[in-house]
Amino acid sequence: MQNRMGPAYTGPAGILQPIADFIKLLAKEDIVPYGAKVLLFRIFPLIAFSIFTLALLLIPIDGEKVISGLRFEGDLLLILALMLIANFFLFISGWSSSNPFSMIGATRVLMQLVGYDTSLFLLALNPALLAGSLNIEKIVNSQMLPFILISPWSFLLFLITLQAELEKDPFDIPCAETEIVAGYETEYSGRRLAFIMAAKDLQTLLGAALIVELFLGGANGPIIAGPQYVWRILWFTLKVIITVLLMEYLTCVFARFRIDQVVRLNWRLLVPSSLISLILTAIIKLLFLGVAASW
Q: If you placed Cys at 131, which of 118, 139, 194, 282 could pair as Cys (CB 3.0 to 4.6 Å)?
């Protein structure tokens, strides 16, 4: 996307290179800096990775959750809460490094966590309000028409807020290399760095899957021939890939904001816009109910 070739040795056109990089990191030396809180430094990246994995398992891929039978009202809130908790563990990972750059990056993680999670939770309520449920499967099954067409402003705001939640440009101030080396992951190496990077990739995948479920109809799509679950998995995967490409495109075309700009954008623009979006969605819901009642 940035016209950079990159390594192309592993797999066709280098498509397996990320897996090779992960395996290589697992074999590198794991260094614990002097003065670090050793226990927290060692285990918290693994806990964050595990929490993101658990949240991803709660996403319905073909209309059913990976963990069979785990369906309940409010699982959307559980997934958002797991994302919040995992990010908090990443904050402690940087804080436990006893490195000034890591501690500044960790503080910025916490700052974005407090600010943008407020908007993210409010915007996630928009499709839940349209569906009349906080259950992801019910939200997906209620989308005869994808909610991106009914409430496009909610989709755009959710996408922008998710960029901040994922610490992607223009909101990547927790790991700004021009200011604080690599932020909260500065002191990490070897397998723990591998798990931090894997946790961030899982978080990106989880965010894209949430957008697909809440606004793009989830696994719903035309079924031409063959088993239904195969087509549903295919449509879900295709939508997630397109969403990830859109998020990465935004990352490539925008420059990083300053930290004061990030704070102002959240509290002066995104939080009020999220509240207005929720009100507009409620109005649309009431109008829809009125039209349905008249029919």
A: 139
How far is CA 145 from its chain centroid?
Answer: 24
Domain contains 284: no
Instruction: Count other C-beta atoms under 10 Å from residue 6's C-beta.
Output: 8
For residue 241, the model assigns a pLDDT of 92
136-166 residue pLDDT tens: 888 888 888 888 888 888 899 999 888 888 8
| Structure token digits, residue 169 | 């440009």
Q: What is the DSSP string of 26-60?
A: HHS-----TT--HHHHHHHHHHHHHHHHHHHHTS-
The whole-number average pLDDT for the span 77-91 is 84
Q: Residue 13 is encoded by which pair of tokens?
A: 């056109």
Q: Total structural domains in the chain?
A: 1
Entry pTM: 0.83
Q: 227 with 84: CB under 8 angstroms?
A: no
Q: Is residue 12 part of a domain?
A: no
Residue type, 273: S
Distances (CA, A) of 166 to 90, 130, 139, 246, 278: 12, 26, 23, 14, 22
Query: Does residue 3 fall inside a structural domain?
Result: no
Q: How far is CA 45 from the centre of its chain?
A: 17
Whether 264 shows a pLDDT value over 60: the answer reads yes
Contact 101, 181 (CB under 8 A): yes
Cα separation, 114 vs 116, in Å, equals 6
- pLDDT at residue 34 in the model: 78
